[in-house]
Amino acid sequence: MSGSNINCQVLLRKVALFKNLSDESISFLGSRMRPEKFLDGMYLIQEGELGERMFVLTKGELDIIKITPSGEVFKVARLTADINPAVGEGALIVSEPRSASARCVGAVECMVLHQTDFNDFCDQYPREAVPLMKDLMMTLMQRLKKTSGDLILLHKALIDEIRG
Known about the structure:
The protein has 164 residues and is an alpha+beta fold.
């Protein structure tokens, strides 16, 4: 096992999505992930583009942004490498248009997992893939719930403004 795979395994243990996997599964995923470097202002993910890769932030910061209907950039969140957040997890399941963009703030380094490698993992480790998929679905459902709540707040604010 190479040193870089060992380092990737240590990293994956810190990622909430992978924290409950066996050493064998972590080793498999670690062997499939690839490091990538990005410069300030580059996009890991662009809203509307099809996604096939998930990124685990290992160095630097990312702004998660959305484009408003009027074309303005709205910063949703800033993610930092100290907690090794995963970005673009939905792309592991299906290649759908991205719901937001992830823009580098300064130099950024990530470990990247491609959808085909995740599918290989699911095929080889189905007993671990099912709970992982449940965790992934919970993450996505929590985000959907928050988005729905935000939409209701915006609707209420708009109605209040109209009624004056």
